Amino acid sequence: MDRIETIVINAIVELLELGGSDAVTRDTRLQDLGIDSALMLELFLVVEDNVPDLEIDPAKLRPEHFTTVESLTAFVLSASQQEEMA
After folding, report:
1. What is the pTM of this model?
2. 3-state secondary structure at position 61
């Protein structure tokens, strides 16, 4: 999970043009960063670019998946594992 978490954090930092990844932790609430649904889709694209063979289906995304960095990381990890099994 650490690798995926790092990818998610780096994607958030890149997308929001933050000074560094120190501003984002696993407990950071995405709403507090101003990430709305449009930014979430952009975030998925950045994450997909950095995780080989990952395709995130936005239709499977539920509100509880984008509460914190940790919940988003868990969702990405789950999607990644499903891709590996396919």
Report:
1. 0.87
2. coil
